[in-house]
Amino acid sequence: MPHRTDSSWYTAVSGCVRRGLDSTAFALLLGMRERDVPFSGFALASLVTACERRGWEEGAACGVAIHALTHRAGLMGNVYIGTALLHLYGSRGLVSDAQQLFWEMPDQNVVSWTALMVALSSNSYLEEALAAYRRMRREGVPCNANAFATVVSLCGSLEDEAAGLQVAAHVVLSGLQGLVSLANLLITMFGNLGRVQDAERLFDRMEERDRISWNAMISMYSHEGACSKCFMLLSDMRRHGGVRPDVTTLCSLVSVCASLDHLAPGSGIHSLCNRSGLNSSVLVGNALVNMYSAAGRMDEAESLFWTMSRRDVISWNTMISSYVQNGSCVEALQTLGLLLQTDEGPPNHMTFSSALGACSSPEALMDGRTVHAMVLQWNLQNNLLIGNSLLTMYSKCNSMEDAERVFQSMPCCDVVSCNVLIGGYSTLEDATNAMCVFFWMRGAEIKPNYITVINLQGSCKSSHDLHSYGMPLHAYITQTGLLSNEYITNSLITMYATCGDLESSSDVFCRIKNKSVISWNAIIAANVLHGHGEEALKLFIDLQHAGNKLDRFCLAECLSSSASLASLDEGMQLHGLRVKCGLDHDSHVVNAAMDMYGKCGKMDDMLKMLPDPASQPTQCWNTLIPGYARYGYLKEAEDTFKHMVSIGRKPDYVTFVALLSACSHAGLVDKGINYYNSMASTCGVPPEIKHCVCIVDLLGRLGQFVEAEKFIEEMPVLPNDLIWRSLLSSSRTYKNLDIGRKAAKNLLELDPFDDSAYVLLSNLYATNARWVDVDKLRSHMKTI
Question: What is this structure's pTM?
Fold first, then answer.
């Protein structure tokens, strides 16, 4: 053009941006500067849009440059430029720059406030975005539909009921509730807040509905697990609304059918997907894979996964997670390996989090370390979910040193991180380290929750733990008002009982005003643990008089109390209740009844209760083996073990405890050692402390103290009080003062308040006619 006006420059810049000719648009900007053409808000706002299409760093740098030009041109009051820059900064995660820009703007209107809220909420600053809305209201800026849409979605994400209801009232006062798009968002928000009736009322009052309206309601019912309502709404949608289901509709319907109970309607939806041609959608395919796996139909899930026309990383994540949830850990790791060989999307934090779930047992530690190495290779170690998954994996593998290293390397931790670490130490009965993590989290101002406290209580296993940690923890619970939490109170009952203080356990129970069946179960189990079977049965009668409904745990505990008393009459009466309570096929109750009959010497009755061998859970086999061994039927116990293995049942930790105990009672050293050595190599069960106790008891019973000491030194786990108590008890039988004193010394180092250690040592002295030592020991006990 021979004569270019300012307007022609502006039109050329915006036209190039609209056509995607961003480089030309920026070249025109340079031409404007060289010819001193004044900048306009229209042109600069267009160029900010072009910045959003560039790479992360380049786009941000261009935006900052345009921001500076806007300052120099005196155009900061232009709402178009300001809003465009706010969107750019938000999309690049430059939240502080977005906030600074907003407050630089001389006039903030509803458009700029909305842009600020979007920038904050899209970067997970949800509370700050809600605060911005409240300030906008205080400053009298009227809201439009876009602003309300942003804040309604925000309240749903925050699950902030008070704020959500307040915003809903603001929408009604503004007269905008009739907008279909806004009503749809309100339905979704009410669903997220669990206010189903409010969503239903709004939906029923809508004069006009679109597909999103129907999908919002179906999605809400899906999240609530209301399968029948989902299908009723689908029928209404097609018959009265004249709306055909789309991918979103089908995904919600498939999700609500993700259980064995609802598999039949889920299969019907699968057929609908095929008929409608939507089965090619990767979203629908992923939902169907998840549905079949959740119902335990892994064959269908696998077939569907491999025949999907297109897969993304979510498809692979779903398949890996499905294998883990169905106990197919080897297949989960193999699937991860196949993903790494495809171009169907790089693995993400969800991929490795699911894969780490396949490595959550001691025998899978090496696999877990391999996945950890992959996490480092993909530079995902700083992700909080990955960090917590690594902590969980190492804790379940009993590798607490690795767990500590991960914990120390995490850039940020939350209450889940601390709970996992405390739970790991609790599993290993390491109250000292569990409390160290608790003290650290309080110093880091991470607020403990009820799971934290329950894990800490579970770590206390001795009178020493009780005095050092359990009682101070009880005081903390009282001071912080956590005694009102039923789970914590019931866990206190168990903690005191486990640590040997049944009196305090009963005191906690008596102070509970509204006792649930879980509270009764806890105190009954506490009495069973202490061998007070008669008291446990009395409590069972009191439970029934109090009007509580029996559950599987209560009935199983009472059957255990009958077993401990070898009280066949009471046991048979309790067993008869199982039919009345609808628990006649419950595996927990069946196993407890088998144990009761076995301990009462009624082997025929125990065998009658056995399910078909092909369907017997491992727990039944673990009851049958010690049942035989208890009455000297070692051959039958061994034959049962061999039969169990031959039909493909995998022995576990408890199985080998039963076998080793049988060998100990029979005095079969060689056989016991052979079983111990074959645990890990043949069956993949790593030896744990109870297995080691059985071997020490076996060697001690035969007076083989040299071998016992050597075994203790070479044990794969640290010796605990059970090891030393067994050795101390055996030393009395053989009048071995040297071994007895060593065992007592180690036992008292673990727990200086252990009365049984002093009693056993005193008995050892008496057996050896060391009466002076007996008197000294009794005098010392009085000073403790």
Answer: 0.70
Burial class (CB in 10 A: 0-12, 13-18, 19+), 449: middle
Residues 94 and 331: their CA atoms lie apart, in Å, by 42
Instruction: Measure the CA–CA gap between 58 and 453, rounded to whole angstroms.
Output: 49
What domains are defined for the chain?
610-709 (1.25.40.10), 720-784 (1.25.40)
CB-based contacts of 81, cutoff 8 Å, min separation 6: 41, 44, 45, 48, 66, 70, 75
Handedness of CA 287, 293, 298, 300 (dihedral sign): negative
**pLDDT exceeds 70 at position 13:** no
Quick one: tokens of 325? 């949830």
Average pLDDT value for residue range 184-210: 92
Q: Which helix (H) or strand (E) holds 46?
A: helix 41-52
Task: Go through the chain and tell me how many residues it has.
Answer: 784
Nearest CA among 583, 584, 585, 557 for reference residue 571: 557
| DSSP secondary structure letters along 622-666 | HHHHHHHHHTT-HHHHHHHHHHHHHTTPPP-HHHHHHHHHHHHHH
Residue in this structure with the two tokens 């307007």, named with its chain if needed? 7
699 vs 680: CA distance, rounded Å: 21
Residue with tokens 């790791």: 333
pLDDT band at 202 (very low <50, low <70, confident <90, very high): very high
Question: In which residue are the tokens 């934090």 written?
Answer: 349
Residue 431 CA to residue 48 CA, distance in Å, equals 58
